[in-house]
Amino acid sequence: MVKAVGLLIDTAGIDKLRITGGEPLLSPKFDAVLPEVMQMGLSDVSVTTNGQLLPRKAPLIIDAGLRRINISLDTLDARAFRDIARSGDLATVLKGIDLMLEAGIKVKLNMVPMRGKNDHQILPMLDYALARGIELRFIELMNMGHLQGNALFERQFYGMDEILELIAEHYEFTRAQAPLDSTAARFEISGRGMFGIIANESEPFCRTCSRLRLSSNGKLYGCLSNAKSYDLRDTLNLPEPLAIAKLQSILGNALADKQLASFRGEVTVMKFIGG
């Protein structure tokens, strides 16, 4: 994994890395990979986690020097949490958040609003985040995996306009600038903080997406909306000049898989390809 990341740095010029999943803290590779990638000169390294193992892994994360972490949390209601997450408990996640904040690590929360399941938690989640200096990201439900071609997607989808309309009833906010290749529209509540919306359906960002995804079994994906992948494992056994030359060819194909306009959906499930 570390060698593959090094090759991508040398070949693609990447300078940001997110360790995601699935749940990365479950992986036996995590404890070895995180400290090594933190020493690779990247401008930004972050981890996305559901937070269930965060209290246990906090010393490793803090000692490695991680400065930013994204935590997936869809509700502050303990009963609803069990229904949505299907395992774990809310108290553990909240404890992990507190440990990260106490260590000076910047926390972002990821929430997927779903009509009829947790849309009533949009404002409580925002209040919780603003009170702690956390940026909350609302992520529109994605038309992929088990939701691909499923009427459940249409029933549960809760879009950007609805989110903003609800928040506007309680807060005044203005749209903030974001980097060209950002996936999130960001908004500022003056004197309180920021929140964002990853509006893959309402405001697609495919035209400016610059992300690559490396799976835990060595497959490179150019796009969340395309199940096509490229195996890097043989490349890792080549001498570096040959490996870079082969990877350049692979990168050209992977980048060509990106959608031209908007997210079209895919049967790929998020636990295999990451966010």
How is this fold's topology laid out?
Blueprint lengths: L1 H11 L3 E4 L10 H8 L6 E6 L4 H11 L3 E5 L5 H8 L4 H13 L3 E6 L10 H10 L3 E5 L11 H6 L3 H9 L5 E3 L8 E5 L3 E6 L14 E2 L4 E3 L8 E2 L8 H17 L13 H4 L2
Parallel strand pairs: 1-2, 2-3, 3-4, 4-5, 5-8
Antiparallel strand pairs: 6-7, 7-8, 9-10, 10-11
Helix pairs in contact: 1-9, 3-5
Structural write-up:
Keywords: GTP-binding, Iron, Iron-sulfur, Metal-binding, Molybdenum cofactor biosynthesis, Nucleotide-binding, S-adenosyl-L-methionine. It comes from Symbiodinium necroappetens. It holds the Pfam family Radical_SAM. A hairpin with an 8-residue loop joins strand 6 (174-176) and strand 7 (185-189). The strands form two sheets. An eight-stranded mixed sheet has the order 1-2-3-4-5-8-7-6, covered by helices on one side. Strands 9-10-11 form a three-stranded antiparallel sheet, with no helix packed on it. The protein has ten helices and eleven strands. The protein is an alpha/beta fold and 275 residues long. Helix 3 (54-64) packs parallel to helix 5. The model has no long low-confidence stretch (mean pLDDT 90). 35% of the residues lie in helices and 17% in strands. The protein has one domain: Aldolase class I (TIM Barrel, Alpha-Beta Barrel), CATH 3.20.20.70.
